[in-house]
Amino acid sequence: MKKPVTKKKPARKPDPKDLKARQRAPLATPTDLKAAATKDITAALNGILADVFAIYLKTKNFHWHMSGPHFRDYHLLLDEQADQIYAMTDPIAERIRKLGGSTLRSIGHIARTQRVLDNDAEYVEPLDMLAELREDNKTLVASLREAHNVCDEHRDIATASLIEVWIDETERRTWFLFESSRQGDSSGH
User: Fold this and answer.
1) What fold is seen in the domain 33-180?
2) Sign (positive/negative) of CA torsion 67, 72, 73, 78?
3) What does the pLDDT look like over 155-179, one tens digit per residue?
4) 143: phi > 0 → left, psi -120 to 50 → alpha, else beta; which?
5) Burial call 150-188: b when 16+ CB within 10 Å, e when fewer
6) With 0-12 CB in 10 A as exposed, 13-18 as middle and 19+ as buried, what is 7?
7) 44: which of 91, 134, 137, 147 fits an S-S bond (Cβ 3.0–4.6 Å)?
């Protein structure tokens, strides 16, 4: 038995007006948080996201340009830390979207938003690299604590919970950078 032949309908051309309307439509993810909460929390998180990208790239820069007698230890330490820092980016950006906000969209957007300074120097002493990254991580912890306060203010428990983990990770990086840069004495300490 033959199947009846059905004529395919010709493909409808997309209406340019519909496309324009969709491009202007907001990415408003539904949330129970008030609009002010979404605005405040996503602004804090976007600042953190920009700083995280800046610290990630600086950490990789120093990892790639490490030199000296402690090369291997420092090189591996910075590679491990860069991986941990980069692992923060997607959860931060996705949290912003879950709250109905917009994330950073480009390198230029990061550059305009970041508070951590870049280091484009041709050469940086290894201990200066560690000290600079230590200070950047301390700055990041302070920003994370401020963002946690914003979350508490707006009763955003989920974001606050994530931030607590990032604070712990960042404090650990700061500690390792501090201990790695200490000068040993004759007792080995």
Assistant:
1) Ferritin (1.20.1260)
2) positive
3) 999 999 999 999 999 999 999 999 9
4) alpha
5) bbeebebeebbebbeebbebbeebbebbeebbeeeeeee
6) exposed
7) 147
How far apart CA 32 and CA 90 sit, in angstroms, is 22
Please, where are the H alpha helices in the chain? 16-24, 35-64, 71-98, 107-113, 126-153, 157-180
Taking Cα atoms as reference points, which of 44, 46, 37 lies closest to residue 153? 37
Token pair 């980069």 in the structure block, residue: 86
CB atoms within 10 A of CB 27: 9
Residue with the two structure tokens 């957007």:
109
What is the residue extent of each domain of the chain?
A: 33-180
pTM comes to 0.84
